Structure prediction request, 932 residues.
Amino acid sequence: MGIVGLVLVIGPVQAHIIPAEKIHPVAEVYRRVNFILNLNPIVWDQVQVDVDTLAENWKAIDPKSAETFHKNVNEIISAATAELNEEKGIEPLPRSMAAKQVFQNMTRAVSDRCLFHIEMASENIDDREVALKEVREAEGIWNAFYATIEASDPEGHKRLGKTWIKMANALGSTGLLGIGGLPPDRDTFQKEAGILIDYIEANFGKDFHPIKRGKLAPWPSKSPTFNSHAKLPAKLPPGHNINKQIPRPRQILGIAARGVDEGETPLIALGDMAFDSAYIYGEPMRSLQMSCNTCHNKSITNPNFIIPGLSSYPGGMDVSSNFFAPHANNGVFDPLDIPDLRGIRFTAPYGRNGRFGSLREFVRNVIVNEFNGDEPDPMLLDGMIAYMNEFEFLSNPYLKKDGRLNENASKSAKRGEEIFHTEFTQMGNMSCATCHIPSANFIDHKRHDIGTVNGHEAYSMDRTMDTPTLLSSKYSPPYFHDGSQPTLGAVVSWFDKNFKLGLKDDEIEDLTSYVETVGDGIDAYEDTVYYLDAEMEEFNFFLSAYEFLEEKNKPGLMGVTFITIAQEIRNHKWELQDPSVMPVMDKMAEIMDAAYAASQAGDQSEVRHKVAEYRAMYNKNSDVLK
Amino acid sequence: MLINNTKRLWTRGLIFFVVCILTSWQSHAEPLKVAFVSYANPQQVAKDSDFLAQYLEMKLGMPVKGFVTLDYGSSIEAMRGDQADIAFVDPLAFMMAHEQIGAVPLLLEVYSSGKPSYRSCIWVRKDAGYTELAGLKGKIIAFADQVDMSGHLLPRDLFRREGFLSGNWVEKEFFGEVYFAGGDEQAIRAMLNGFVDAAGVSEYASLLLRPKERDAVKVLAYTMPSPSHLIMARKGVPQQTKDKLKKTLLALDPSIPGDKSILDKLYGVRGFAEAQLSDFEGVAKVAAGFGFVKNPELFAGSEATE
Prediction:
């Protein structure tokens, strides 16, 4: 392909942004459906979209098979999503049974597509360009099964990987301007294609039936080299995005804002490290390298975050499914909007439904139950709370100390403020300000049923949600616990409509202007796209907790600190503007690996030595690590 | 005073007349035909080429028509048939085009290294334990494509220079097997996944891997540098047009957002540098060894003239 293509494909490396994996649309759909079918509950709406896509894609090639597939799968989904009606004898198809049936149909369809393109390549072997395109199509679709084969049949994986190369190789070359052409090697191509066809037909072909072993996956159980004890590595489905937002939100830590020497706040440093660490959690968070910071980037909502099957929109996720912590699954698809954590010490109770009175309880639950971690060391929790207590709201130049607007606010916002304080009989003689109390950070620390939650039955009393603060809210869309309102204007309109407030258009505009003014703040985002120097400084801050942890004899927390720093350096090193400095970052990561190993072995002298070595290296190179 | 005013009116009228004539001439002039090559996403390149054609039209003050080809051969054939005046090509395609149809080099692309050149590498897995090229004896190597300077000719030439191959096309003399995987990514992924032992592709090929995967591979050896991909002109394109085009593209500054968006559409390069025929002297000899270039002396210390 050459260099131009490479540069085009990759684009500029920026701020730990991992580009989405390139994947054939058929494999993409299959892998996503495979992921969702393993969830409890299954989001059938999302499965349906992918099933439709696959059928549509297939229609152009084999309309009859596509139609049969579509009809069969639609029937299964309809049966799975049917409402229970004992009178009519309607019982929904059990989830696991429906999942197996859909998976069986999908697997057979995908293998059929793959075989079709191998056949087409074979038929067009004399036209190298066409044949190579067909091989690429087939290989792209093969990717649907790739991860499972790699994990459970490594020998077959290598054997077949080589087969694909041999097939491409056997197509010869068209040369350039009549020079360098090579004819196709028909015999080799057919031989290698035959190996692939046999494997696909035996394992995923017309007779494919999902086998009973843990997760639903395309296990190549008919391969003689299949390892029936293999486990699949944790992987997120195609379409996920856990990259953080660019430009980066400006985080205001109280200690930094007050000019405190950060080197003298070890508990906060420990908390900062834990907030960025995947190692305070269990699997699959560790393997996926996800941390608090993934969803709450620099404590602020990550609006990009989405995982198909767990999210229904970017910026939200179901934290009580079986994916991250099977033991704590609640069996309901209830994705929640990722909250902004600015000013969190002022916003109790915690959780969108205010189910935790204290931040400490809430954080422990996140670690242990939402994300499958071990019981955290009390000191780790202390650190996290100390750190989170430093999250400040954005400064707001439009507010007085009592939360009323000052002279900087617009006339429209001031008119909106009056509406905000108006008591409406339709709201039980309450005003917006009754719950969002301006003098109390725009919250009342209570829970209310405003009509955004569907209860489990008609008169159930399970509909209250925590009052959110309005401070800094302009920068954390979408809104409501389920992210159903994209803008603050939509929120205002929702209240007007649902409480029949009868606001005129200009009043809605004024009230929106007011809420946006309250939610505003100075410099919400950083003014650079290069953050590596700040990240490296932060990792050095993490390490400032070392002496404290040594004094308190906390080798476990030291280990978490070292391994987190090592991993963070490896994650961020691709952001270097000058790639020639990469060996320095590699070395620093290796030093942290060694410190981790020493801490695990109880060799405190070696740990001290490695910490000193890291600090010296950072001090020497901090100017170029950017 | 009256005479002055009359004179001024006449002068203005004359200028207006000349501008009208020039505008009319320009709108009927043959457009400058620019061939953009597409690697993976023809639709996107087509979209970008329309934008770039408009940009160049504005900068050059002449009609510009962009179109997309699927490979270098098509771009060169279009140039041979006067259907393309300007084309984006790799060094091998350029040398063959120069030799066969007298195409001239205009600008070399500048990559993230800041240089208008790059190298190819022999890539291996870090955990495979290879420390020198000799360790690859009897092993399997994958290249990108037979007709690929960085993805085949340069890395294979390296083995010849190091004395592991007596000639350029000797297959089983050193390697156990040699495959052409069909592209840089296929070749380096094949190595990463252990399907082959080594991959001979561009130094930038590792960027096609995901960040974690990049840490699993290493460069065992670098080839000699090659001039980067380039913009070439058909023989006969007026010098003034070539100069204007060069001036326009050389002025692009990646630190200016507007310019950067242009560069991003121009295959994401950092900028451009003047190209000379002599830049290709070294790689012409390599290409000649494989029979792609017949007269490597055409590039020996010479300058691009017509």
